[in-house]
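Q: I'm writing up a methods section and want to include an example of the input and output format. Could you take the sequence below and give the corresponding predicted structure tokens, formatted cleanly so I can copy it straight into the document?
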Amino acid sequence: MKATGNGTPQQCAENLLSIIRGENPMERVKGIDARYIDKIQKNAETDIKEDVKWLIKTYEPRINIEDIEVKVAEQENGNHHIFTLISDT
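A: Here is the clean output for your methods example:
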């Protein structure tokens, strides 16, 4: 999280997507499911998109999701780091 400017919908969504589910002791379902971090099967992209849609709809209703793009931002020694772009209206 940034020191200031955390109230914009885009920043809130970015913060939500940087949390791994279970990290927040008071909201155990907030965040991305950790099973997707190293998952490289073809169906992982669909699962990630559905997870992101649910997360944003549940915790950031100010964003209307049009499209979600999932890319592998970094691949090193078999580890995959997921970068998600959300297009909103």
